[in-house]
Write a structure and sequence with these properties.
The chain is mainly alpha-helical. It has one domain (18-377). Helices cover 73% and strands 4% of the residues. It is built from 15 helices and three strands. Strands 1-2-3 form a three-stranded antiparallel beta sheet. A hairpin with a 2-residue loop joins strand 2 (112-118) and strand 3 (121-124). The chain is globular, with a radius of gyration of 23 Å. The protein starts with a helix and ends with a helix.
Length: 400
């Protein structure tokens, strides 16, 4: 066992012992910088028109980024064991904020009640709830592993919690956050060792529920219809998607250049938030889009590497939590980019670390900090094991 541990770095020298942590930090900072630059470009004209200050959104994003970095540093210094011990507290917080937003405390924007005013900015409760619920479910998977793997009751209990949270999210309504949370949680449970056959009834049920939700809400049905053929009604239900596709078309291979986007000039709604990826494609072309896609791919793969190494180091909660967090980031990024390119129906999801928005940015930074903490604890555990083995060898050699 020890020989295997000592030989591992030589066999995987291309990643190295510290590389996942370094790659995680570098990739996250790169996406943060890209986000600030692109928000500066995409929001300036709208900020002048709406706020009277062209730098309004970028200044706020810089403040959010600074706060996010501070929260990431806090998360790095919080032991993983605290998240495990605080599972019930986090579950309570997650469900509480989802309930509070439906009270008069909640703020409604564009027909959705997703925010609670908090001083100088609004907190999007779904971002807080997703992290809290993933933390609780990771603890459940570790505590009740045998029950989860071997009984239907153990499998259905976490799904009941997800069901309550999903109902509260749909009431807001926030269908996109519901999809991300349920899919990430299901993926985390699957990676814990639950048989795929257990998920067949769940998937069938979710498909039926999703179809009902779409068919019973005219605006959702219009989104699906416009997604199938956005050009059929390009000035109404298909407007947002067609404008996004125009941005991709204008970008071609190398883009029109930073700041030269036409679509951001009030043609593409939510250009600095949900559709920031389309502006990136217009100003930097296919090359810029692939760079952003590549950075997210590296970030997600690094998260899975950290989770897998924690699993091998016998850190079950850290591994499960890291899997869940990585799935949250990866799914949200993937859905956002797929929506911008017309691969999925329009959803109100931000691009993590890139889109404008304090809640999404700060929670994403916390997630990065947690992943870094998992890797740091794994490295510390491995270092202690190595030192312990070395001391035993020295004692044995002394007696020889």
């Amino acid at each position: 066992m020890q020989a295997g541990l000592s030989a591992a770095p030589a066999r995987t020298q291309w990643v190295g012992e510290i590389q996942p942590l370094a790659v995680l930090v570098i990739t996250s900072i790169a996406l943060l910088i890209i986000g600030v630059v692109m928000i500066s470009s995409a929001s300036m004209d709208m900020a002048v028109e709406v706020m009277g200050n062209g730098y309004h959104y970028v200044i706020r994003q810089l403040i959010f980024a600074a706060m996010g970095c501070m929260l990431a540093l806090v998360a790095v210094n919080v032991p993983v064991a605290w998240w495990e011990r605080s599972g019930w507290l986090l579950l309570g917080i997650g469900l509480l904020v989802l309930v509070l937003v439906l009270t008069p405390l909640g703020r409604t924007v564009n027909g959705s009640t997703r925010w609670i005013p908090f001083g100088l900015f609004n907190v999007q409760v779904s971002e807080v709830a997703k992290l809290c619920l993933i933390a609780y479910l990771a603890g459940y998977v570790v505590r009740r592993r045998d029950e989860l793997l071997n009984t239907w009751a153990g499998f259905l209990k976490p799904l009941a919690v997800l069901g309550v949270a999903s109902v509260l999210l749909v009431i807001q309504p926030d269908f996109g956050a519901t999809v991300v949370l349920v899919t990430a949680a299901a993926g985390m449970i699957f990676l814990s060792g639950v048989r795929l056959s257990r998920f067949v009834p769940l998937i069938a049920t979710l498909v039926v529920i999703g179809a009902v939700l779409i068919l019973t809400q005219p605006y959702r049905l219009k989104r699906v219809v416009s997604y199938l053929d956005p050009w059929k009604d390009q000035f109404d239900t298909g407007y947002q998607l067609t404008q996004s596709l125009i941005a991709f078309g204008r970008g071609e291979w190398g883009g029109v250049g930073l700041g030269n986007s036409i679509q951001k000039l009030f043609f593409l709604p939510e250009a600095h938030t949900d559709f920031i990826f389309a502006i990136i494609a217009e100003e930097f072309g296919l090359l810029g889009s692939l760079i952003v896609l590549g950075l997210f791919t590296v970030l997600v793969v690094t998260g899975f590497v950290i989770a897998r190494r924690a699993e091998k180091a016998h850190m079950p909660f850290g591994a499960c939590f890291a899997y869940g967090i990585t799935l949250l980031i990866g799914l949200q990024a993937g859905i956002n980019m797929a929506v911008s390119t017309g691969l999925l129906p329009t959803k109100g999801l931000t691009l993590p670390l890139v889109s404008y928005g304090g809640s999404s940015l700060m929670i994403s930074c916390v997630c990065i900090g947690i992943l870094a903490r998992v890797e740091m604890e794994r490295l510390d555990k491995e270092k202690q094991a190595t030192e312990k083995t070395g001391s035993r060898k020295r004692v044995g050699a002394r007696y020889d």
